[in-house]
Amino acid sequence: MGTPHNAAKLGDIAKTVLMPGDPLRAQFIAENYLEDAVCFNTVRNMFGYTGTYKGKRISVMGSGMGMPSMGLYSYELFHEYDVDNIMRIGTAGSISEEANVRDIIMGIGACTDSNYAKQFHLPGTYAPTADYTLLKTAVEEAEKLGIKPVVGNIVSTDSFYHAQEDVNLRWASMGILAIEMESAALYMNAAKAGKRALSIMTISDHILKEIILPPEERQTGFRQMMEVALNTAVAITE
Ligand code: HPA
């Protein structure tokens, strides 16, 4: 059938989907890591592929940038395509001494300045969190590769260019590791759907120390993160 944003038919997408922000990264993963990858979506160039990795069926699809984009694609994957697990694999800007450029971080929780939670009409403030099984498995898989991930709270912002100069310091004062733009929507969609989500990110820049990784180094960090995510997908697949 498909949706307004996804041409895939039910059954075309695996139970576990890795979602980089950039659809060209989805294509890169399909071409370099998956066997027998088949493209299931090209609508708006938000490429999606299904193939196998270490014998397990896995999909990869771009999420786009920001919570509205991650929100709609992950909603459709959970509700229209019977997807059970989504792992975001992206980049984040550190605002913490604990997370340095090149580090791999995992978001236990995702604070947000967005109104995404309003739709659920809750009588308080919702705390979007990662799925514990995915998180635990991802930490174990990272350690098997000799990587020590930094695990903690992150913030998903609607404003890459924020009007308030001290905004990052305020989040940092609450122990937030890093800033990105998608995880809170993903975690809320997973919770509402009764499914599982996790965000794994490489630190591409340190906002407070004003360090930005050169593009080729971003690529190396990205490869490590992809392997952690792919091995986690394998570990949780029957
Ligand atoms: N802000 C928001 N999202 C990001 C950043 C940032 O500084 N770096 C990578 N993703």
TrEMBL record:
Reactions mediated catalytically: uridine + phosphate = alpha-D-ribose 1-phosphate + uracil; a purine D-ribonucleoside + phosphate = a purine nucleobase + alpha-D-ribose 1-phosphate; a purine 2'-deoxy-D-ribonucleoside + phosphate = a purine nucleobase + 2-deoxy-alpha-D-ribose 1-phosphate
GO cellular component terms given for this protein: cytosol
Residues that bind phosphate: 21, 25, 44, 88-91
Site (Important for catalytic activity): 218
UniProt keyword terms in alphabetical order: Glycosyltransferase, Transferase
Pfam family, one: PNP_UDP_1
GO molecular function: purine-nucleoside phosphorylase activity; uridine phosphorylase activity
Family classification: Belongs to the PNP/UDP phosphorylase family.
NCBIfam families per UniProt: deoD, PRK05819.1
InterPro entries documented for this protein: DeoD-type (IPR004402), Nucleoside_phosphorylase_CS (IPR018016), Nucleoside_phosphorylase_d (IPR000845), Nucleoside_phosphorylase_sf (IPR035994)
Domain Nucleoside phosphorylase: from-to ranges: 16-211
EC number: 2.4.2.1
Listed name of the protein: Purine nucleoside phosphorylase DeoD-type
Positions of the catalytic residues: 205
Function: Catalyzes the reversible phosphorolytic breakdown of the N-glycosidic bond in the beta-(deoxy)ribonucleoside molecules, with the formation of the corresponding free purine bases and pentose-1-phosphate.
Assembly: Homohexamer; trimer of homodimers.
GO terms (BP aspect): purine nucleoside metabolic process; uridine catabolic process
Group of enzyme by EC: transferase
Binding site for a purine D-ribonucleoside: 5, 180-182, 204-205
